[in-house]
Description:
This protein is mainly α.
Amino acid sequence: MQLVGAREHMTFGGSITAHTPGFLAKALTRQGKGGDFRNPERIQNWAHHISAELAA
């Protein structure tokens, strides 16, 4: 964050399906633990926050 001058960061859940590459993703889907874990409301709130920061 210091290298690029970032003030904050945020991570969001993702989507893990049978088509997601990688050993861990494949193991999770085989165990029935895949799915879409994204939260559109949380993402939109973050986008509005960033927009307000950039406008200020």
